[in-house]
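Re: coenzyme A structure - here you go.
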Amino acid sequence: MSIKFERKAALYPGSFDPITNGHLDIIKRALNIFDYLVIAVAVNTDKKTLFTKEERIELITGAVRDLDGVEVTSFTGLTAEFAKSKGVKAIVRGLRMVSDFEYEFQMALMNRKLMPEADTIFLMPSEKYTYLSSSLIKDIGKYNGKIECFLPPNVVEALGKKFQIKNYRG
Ligand code: COA
């Protein structure tokens, strides 16, 4: 007799400025576990962003267009409150290396305090993305460095336009 398990929805919050293949890797891993993933651009972080909220949403939407069971949106305010409003009880975060741990651990425990019914699930990206970050990519991109292996094609194009680089190497 086979047992049918009910799978659930999760929230993947982040700045996504811009989305990288590392984020995509986490999204695909999350979709192996959850039926539905809400990918949400956090708007009011202290980070000064290169891409506007609308651009970040558009870039994520383009990057995940072949994936089923995803919703791309944005939120202001607390992640925990947004998770509650979505009826989601799992928050997905990527852990790239040990240096991510302290900040993520603190955030996970605080989010659990704010929303005791939810837990943070940490997923490790493929090793080839562990040293990747959106800031590094933007820095390399600004000087026309090669970044195509780190980004979805639509993001490579958008970065080229942002930096107004002709014949972008991406
Ligand atoms: N692959 C590649 N890069 C990755 C990655 C992965 N799998 N996972 C994380 N990163 C990088 C990002 O590119 C980003 O790089 P950057 O700093 O150079 O831009 C960095 O890791 C962290 O980014 P991100 O995952 O987007 O997290 P964040 O720290 O920018 O945002 C929030 C974290 C949005 C979840 C958090 O600030 C938040 O919850 N804000 C809402 C307010 C709130 O609830 N505060 C209380 C929290 S307890």
